[in-house]
Automatic annotation (TrEMBL):
Family: Belongs to the UDP-glycosyltransferase family.
Pfam families reported for this sequence: UDPGT
EC number: 2.4.1.-
Signal peptide: none
InterPro entries assigned: UDP_glucos_trans, UDP_glycos_trans_CS
Protein name: Glycosyltransferase
GO MF, any single term: quercetin 7-O-glucosyltransferase activity
Organism of derivation: Colocasia esculenta
Keywords: Glycosyltransferase, Transferase
Length: 470
């Protein structure tokens, strides 16, 4: 039977983007792929006639309801509400798409023979006997730490004791004993109660992964070799196929980047064209981070005090109050005109990071942003907030040594100090050399015979074997 993969993605920008890239990579390799997401995201991408589907033969979009009203904002502050509603309402439609073997769909596509499910969607594990693989949109190091949350709770390391030393090492995660401090664990570990719903949901979404037919990471084998060796002790069939945006471009040099949930403002590229090489600090805190006005102003003053040029992405929902960039104090906006460029809504991040004018990336350390910065050879100033970000930032600074970690602080003096550390002097030059070496490693891994290319080939072979009943 012809292999037909149904890829079920979470409706979050950071999960949607790599899963779309994985769907494209599988389609390029000759598989039929149905990309499944919520009705809201489906329409944002263009529906059945989406440009992506017109460009990529063998790839189509389908949707399930998320159970929320049409006027629901679906913004950063509603993450858990969105995921809970999706879990409660999408199951029936999801099962309808898993056509029983032996029946064709009305448009002539064969039945689904394999599913690849976002690891957050534990409710969409194996249905109707159809094999399921788990896709982790986050980093391998975060998965490994998440997997040991039950053990950390059992040992009394979580929740953290009142008034504890946040720099004390955590010893319950094999292979990370001398690396992880309390402050490097995900933000939910700071909850006062082990029964916190986010802790419980995270354990649920992690513990089912070893039961899947395979575990797929948007990662680079040599970069994460040590932690992947640990992961394979519980998930022997683990594939590394990243960075997926680099891999798809290597497979198809004519590839056009897929639009996401935010409308990209391309005008910043012309501004970058007018700036000197390596002179600009790119600032973006991803699709979910929310800043207080006080935090935003500390970043603002810190950036201005460095006297370096900066390009700052300010989403409409970046502030935790009503209002947007137009509400910034007048004197700051006037001063920024000389050195800065503000992007309202979203920037074409991959193009920005690849631009020769960009010298550093002030980032929330989401895994996509981390991989995009590594692929472009741009050193990072990491200001993580939650989930895998706090682990990613620790690895950036202490394992890959391609940036500095600024977690848990954002006063203007620290912002200025950290930006200068990646933009000025010999220490910055060393970070740039390390970042350039990582970028070269990425190019090798996604190229012909590289580990990510081989990982994709093995994944395709496994899907075809499952589809033929082997």
């Amino acid at each position: 039977m012809m292999a037909h993969v149904l890829a079920f993605a979470s409706p979050l920008q950071g999960h949607l983007s790599p899963m779309l890239k994985l769907a494209e990579a599988l389609a390029i390799e000759g598989l039929l792929v149905t990309f499944l997401t919520t009705e809201h995201v489906y329409h944002k991408l263009g529906g059945a006639d989406a440009p992506l589907c017109r460009r990529r033969q063998g790839l189509r979009l389908r949707s399930v309801p998320d159970g929320l009203p049409a006027d629901h904002p679906r913004l950063a502050g509603h993450l858990w509400e969105i995921m809970q509603s999706l879990r409660d309402t999408s199951g029936e439609k999801y099962r309808e798409l898993l056509v029983p073997l032996g029946k064709e769909e009305p448009d002539g596509w064969p039945p689904v023979t394999c599913t690849i499910v976002d690891a957050l969607l534990s409710f969409a594990a194996e249905e109707l006997g159809i094999p399921v693989m788990a896709f982790r949109a986050g980093s391998p190091c975060s998965f490994w730490a998440y997997f040991f949350v039950p053990k950390l709770i059992e040992q009394g390391e979580i929740p953290f004791p009142e008034g504890c030393d946040m720099d004390e090492l955590v010893r319950g995660v094999p292979g990370m004993e001398g690396l992880l401090r309390r402050r490097d664990l995900p933000g939910f570990c700071r909850a006062k109660d082990a029964n916190d719903p986010i802790i419980q949901a995270t354990m649920l979404t992690t513990q089912w992964n070893p039961r899947a037919r395979g575990l797929i990471f948007n990662s680079v084998e040599p970069m994460d070799a040590a932690v992947l060796a640990h992961i394979r002790t519980i998930c022997p069939v683990t594939y590394t196929v990243g960075p997926l945006h680099n891999l798809v471009r290597a497979l198809d040099p004519a590839h056009i980047a897929t639009a996401g949930l935010w409308r990209e403002n391309q005008t910043c590229l012309a501004w970058l064209d007018a700036q000197p090489s390596k002179s600009v600090v790119f600032v973006s805190f991803g699709s979910l981070a929310v800043l207080s006005r006080a935090q935003l102003l500390e970043f603002w003053h810190g950036l201005l005090n460095t006297r370096h040029r900066f390009l700052w992405v300010i989403r409409p929902d970046l502030l935790d109050e009503t209002g947007g960039p137009g509400d910034l104090p007048f004197e700051l906006t006037q001063e920024a005109k000389e050195k800065g460029c503000l992007v309202v809504e979203w920037a074409p991040q991959q193009a920005v990071l690849a631009h020769p004018a960009v010298g550093a990336f002030l980032t929330h350390s989401g895994w996509n942003s981390t991989l995009e910065s590594i692929g472009a050879g741009v050193p990072m100033v990491c200001w993580p907030l939650f989930f895998d970000q706090t682990l990613n930032s620790r690895y950036v600074s202490e394992v890959w040594r391609a940036g500095v970690d600024m977690k848990d602080t954002c006063d203007r003096a620290t912002v200025e100090k950290m930006v200068r550390a990646v933009m000025e002097g010999e220490a910055a030059a060393e970070l740039r050399r390390n970042a350039a070496a990582l970028a070269e490693m990425v190019r090798s891994c996604v190229g012909e015979g590289g580990s990510s290319r081989v990982g994709l080939e093995k994944l395709v072979q496994a899907i075809r074997a499952m589809s033929s009943g082997e």
